[in-house]
Specification:
The chain is mainly β. The protein has helices spanning 36-42, 101-108; strands at residues 22-23, 26-27, 30-31, 47-48, 59-63, 70-75, 78-84, 112-116, 123-127, 137-143, 148-155. It has 2 helices and 11 strands; from the N terminus they run E-E-E-H-E-E-E-E-H-E-E-E-E. The strands form 2 sheets. The chain has an 8-stranded antiparallel β-sheet, with helices on one face. It has a 3-stranded antiparallel β-sheet with strand order 1-2-3, with no helix packed on it. The N and C termini lie far apart (32 Å). The model is unreliable at 1-16 (pLDDT under 50).
Length: 166
Amino acid sequence: MLANEPPVAKSGATAASAPLTVTTFGIGRVRAGMLVRDASTLLNGALVAPSGRDSAACDYLTWRNGPPGVKVMTERGRIARVEVDSGATTTDAGARIGDSEARIRELYGNRVRVEPHKYTTGRYLIVTPANVTDTLFRLVFETDGQHVTRFRSGVKPPVLYVEGCS
């Protein structure tokens, strides 16, 4: 295990029987910072780089039979972040699209920092990991000023990119 790498939860549930949840580190066993080929191996080849390339400066993977509304962004052959823009995927604390800003603050407490949205009247609710030594990871909720419209998790700086791979 790498330094500051979160432990992988032990569970008898399989991907088919239990939905994957998002943490500050990624989704399920897929962690920001891991090599694309290792993440794909964990998912039995379900993560595929466009045209088979896995070392582009920034790209999005295809996740065959992955959770609806979930995207995986890569940078230089490594998982950079996981984005949720629709669907029923939740965080490990139970946060989801449609939750109020108050609910996010209730779930994450003083770990939430609020910043104005770059393009709308909404906000970014930026959550730091519970373990203060995991300084490179974040969970970012985008809101319309009242409710979560999307969220993402991963490693800095890519998790903080407003425009993804632009």
